[in-house]
Specification:
InterPro entries: ABM_dom (IPR007138), Dimeric_a/b-barrel (IPR011008), Heme-degrading_MO (IPR050404), IsdG (IPR023953). This is Heme oxygenase (staphylobilin-producing). GO terms for molecular function: heme binding; heme oxygenase (decyclizing) activity; iron ion binding. Its EC number is 1.14.99.48. With 105 residues, the chain is of the alpha+beta class. It has a single domain, classed as Alpha-Beta Plaits (2-Layer Sandwich), CATH 3.30.70.100. Helices cover 27% and strands 36% of the residues. Strands 2-3-1-4 form a four-stranded antiparallel sheet. Strand 2 and strand 3 form a beta hairpin. The longest helix is centred in the last third of the chain and has 11 residues. It is globular. The two termini are 18 Å apart. The relative contact order is 0.31.
Length: 105
Amino acid sequence: MYVVTNRIDVKKGFAKKMAPKFTQGGKIQELDGFRKVEVWLIDDEEDYDQMYINTWWETEDDFKAWLQSDAFKEAHEGKAKSSSEESPVLGNKVVKANVISVLDN
């Protein structure tokens, strides 16, 4: 299993507004190896909201195929368009990991 986490810092109060955009579904669900998306709101930040958008893939190659897909381009096309509103996004960092041990109940 391969997990990619996009840690996004946003202005206070925006995480809960933005979270549904990541879990509304779409073409990503049709891609080989896609398993799920989870959006977490981190509890310990006071001045801003921090979200972890976790995407779960069978393999790293499945994730890389997503990055090159039309589905990825469509999901991110709104970002490139300029807007008169200031973006609530303060910054982000992407973390990629292979799952090497799991305990399920």
